[in-house]
């Protein structure tokens, strides 16, 4: 059974670590499957054409190490490496791919639930000098919710990775189009983007906001929206028809912001860089505020 955090404004559905989604990409701790604001849907799904939804993202799933999982390079083929928040994955070749199906040895999870929050602990095994303790707390407020992270390096080697939330966002299940505006607190410089995939030219890049001149039938993607410059970790999505906005604000500065989407969903992604020496720990948080637009 999923855990529900609910008040008069927000309802958040959170799957426990070992239920439903069981793939090797997204963090199993605090899988936020669905968010509603005054009974209006705010979250979407990665794909609408998938046969096995437990292999794909939805809601506000997060991921550690999209480019390379912890310890992958040092692991021999046939050995095991860490995917933070999931467990151990078996290495089959010399290239790590987040979309690949890996054999999984799940980490050890412990869940504590309260009326306004859920706390999930994830404890790893020690493999190749790496081990960690991850603690995630999801807290419900009046018209917002906060995700708090604590990551401790319990191993012998430095932990160098990153974390982001994929934010599969769709307000009132509306298709992406001219009813949406996506805003950032920094200037957008397309010439500095690392990658631009906009095949139908349906995505319009402004000075600090993104609009849509139609519904994209094909996937779009923009990477490194800050041009590698440090910026406040924040985005704001407004649906003009529903007159609802949602804003994510991180407790950190970011130099990597990506944007992915399709006809049914839009996903702004704020990356948090992680560097932890052995015996040290780090904390960060993300707050999601939902509001009505005048």
Characterize the structure shown.
By secondary structure, this protein is mainly β. The protein has one domain: Beta-galactosidase, Chain A, domain 5, CATH 2.70.98. Helices cover 0% and strands 47% of the residues. It is built from no helices and 24 strands. The protein has strands at residues 3-6, 10-15, 31-37, 40-41, 62-64, 80-83, 87-90, 104-106, 108-114, 117-123, 132-140, 144-153, 159-165, 180-183, 195-197, 203-205, 209-212, 220-223, 231-239, 244-254, 257-261, 266-270, 272-276, 281-292. The strands form 5 sheets. It has a 10-stranded antiparallel sheet, with no helix packed on it. It has a 4-stranded antiparallel sheet with strand order 1-2-3-4, with no helix packed on it. The chain has a 4-stranded antiparallel sheet with strand order 15-18-21-22, with no helix packed on it. The protein is globular. The N and C termini lie far apart (37 Å). The model has no long low-confidence stretch (mean pLDDT 96).
